């Protein structure tokens, strides 16, 4: 089934007028120069009426400014209607799982592809409770986030809140601001078992009147239909780690992984964890890939995202981390709740509440 959703944006980010009175707001980095967000700096190029800020950094920027800022001369007020706009083609997103190359791909200093870039996975949602970050989830409609049940099982919906469009959780200097929402309804899978982990999946629903607003950095990811066959292609996991909070920068990590064929998954699970008599049904899927601190680290909840067949830049949610990743063998073994197995349950829970499920359909 092909449902085209046309989402048109008219996004005109009208950057603040930075006059000399406002320069006091910003740290001085050199005579007549201040550390300002890139978009407020004159340096850049205009192509077809679009202004692209210069994101290169000089030694001066690095010594004095945050990595999302540039050392810039803002003595002369910027033209008062300086409009930083996305043109029509950039404003049109037709499908779930799509993303825009915004030219906004900020990256931290010393970037080694271990961190996700700004808006690289625009459906990635940070889940918090009052005393801090819990785990990550994926936005499947403007009203609904999917995550692992083990992440939220001890909390009431009213204790949880969600942040979409977030990137560096330590600061608020991103070119587009994040969105924060309360959780109205927490739906654990009715057959969820903690140990051994089974049916490890939960839905977090927003208040009907305050959904997330889709934007270049806030998008929904597609869900696979129940009969979908994953083609072992290059997939990614991404999310924030609890250990990274309270530092200078708190960026989502990312790792490439691949999905193991079903028979290999069954034999590895039998050998590694679940015992000889274990018969794999489709509730779990396995991943392989290189070990790193992120995938082998503490077990929050992270989404496993795979490209759609025939497209390397449109994604579906294949899994949610269900058990601690095994990193004691030469290759890692990741164990994920298999989202396609839960597709009917998810559809049912949303339909029960009169929520539109077309957004995540292929
Ligand atoms: C900053 O801009 C003002 C106004 O254009 C100019 O007079 C001044 O020389 C510039 N200062 C530096 C350090 O470039
Ligand atoms: C919009 O921007 C894209 C990418 O920069 C460019 O390829 C396209 O030609 C632009 N379209 C219009 C109508 O300006
Ligand atoms: C939970 O398990 C029961 C018993 O096996 C089964 O009948 C029911 O369909 C399951 N619920 C879901 C949502 O899968
Ligand atoms: C799976 O991938 C292989 C090679 O990349 C390709 O030849 C094949 O057609 C794909 N199968 C499906 C069902 O997409
Ligand atoms: C945090 O920033 C301060 C000041 O820039 C720096 O001295 C310190 O080393 C940074 N800490 C970390 C963990 O990067
Ligand atoms: C799938 O397998 C697991 C583990 O053996 C079992 O707990 C679960 O009930 C099975 N589910 C279905 C729907 O067969």
From TrEMBL:
One Pfam entry name: Trypsin
Organism: Drosophila grimshawi (Hawaiian fruit fly)
Key word Disulfide bond present: yes
Gene Ontology biological-process annotations: proteolysis
Keyword list, A-Z: Disulfide bond, Signal
Residues making up the signal peptide according to the UniProt record: 1-19
PANTHER family: TRYPTASE-RELATED (PTHR24256)
SMART domains, per the entry: Tryp_SPc
InterPro entries: Peptidase_S1_PA, Peptidase_S1_PA_chymotrypsin, Ser/Thr_Proteases_Immune/Dev, Trypsin_dom, TRYPSIN_HIS
Domain Peptidase S1 intervals: 108-351
CDD domains: Tryp_SPc
Name of the protein in its database record: GH25107
SUPFAM superfamilies, sorted: Trypsin-like serine proteases
Molecular function per GO: serine-type endopeptidase activity
Family: Belongs to the peptidase S1 family. CLIP subfamily.
């Amino acid at each position: 089934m092909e449902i085209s959703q046309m989402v048109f944006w008219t996004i005109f980010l009208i950057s603040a007028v930075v006059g000399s009175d406002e320069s006091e707001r910003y740290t001085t980095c050199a005579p007549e120069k201040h550390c300002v967000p890139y978009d407020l700096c004159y340096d850049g190029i205009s192509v077809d009426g679009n202004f692209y800020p210069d994101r290169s950094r000089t030694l001066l920027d690095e010594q004095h400014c945050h990595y999302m800022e540039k050392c810039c001369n803002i003595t002369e007020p910027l033209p008062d209607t300086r409009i930083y706009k996305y043109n029509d083609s950039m404003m049109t997103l037709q499908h779930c799982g799509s993303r825009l190359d915004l030219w906004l791909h900020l990256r931290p200093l010393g970037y080694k592809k271990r961190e996700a870039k700004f808006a690289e996975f625009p459906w990635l949602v940070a889940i918090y409770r009052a005393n801090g970050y819990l785990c990550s989830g994926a936005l499947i409609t403007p009203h609904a986030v999917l995550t692992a049940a083990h992440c939220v099982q001890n909390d009431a919906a009213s204790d949880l809140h969600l942040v979409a469009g977030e990137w560096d959780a330590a600061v608020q200097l991103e070119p587009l601001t994040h969105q924060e929402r309360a959780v109205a309804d927490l739906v654990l899978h009715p057959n969820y078992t903690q140990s051994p982990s089974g049916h490890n999946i939960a839905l977090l629903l927003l208040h009907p009147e305050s959904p997330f607003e889709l934007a270049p950095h806030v998008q929904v990811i597609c869900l696979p239909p129940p009969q979908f066959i994953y083609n072992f292609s290059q997939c990614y996991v991404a999310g924030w780690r609890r250990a990274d909070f309270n530092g200078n920068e708190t960026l989502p990590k990312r790792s490439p992984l691949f999905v193991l064929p079903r028979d290999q998954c069954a034999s590895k699970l039998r050998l590694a964890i679940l015992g000889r008599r274990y018969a794999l049904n489709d509730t779990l899927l396995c991943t392989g890939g290189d070990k790193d601190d992120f995938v082998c680290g503490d077990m929050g909840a992270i989404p496993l995202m795979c490209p759609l067949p025939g497209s390397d830049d449109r994604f579906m949610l294949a899994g949610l981390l269900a058990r601690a990743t095994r990193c004691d063998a030469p290759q890692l073994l990741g164990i994920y709740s298999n989202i396609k197995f839960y597709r009917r349950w998810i559809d049912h829970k949303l339909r029960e509440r009169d929520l539109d499920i077309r957004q995540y359909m292929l």
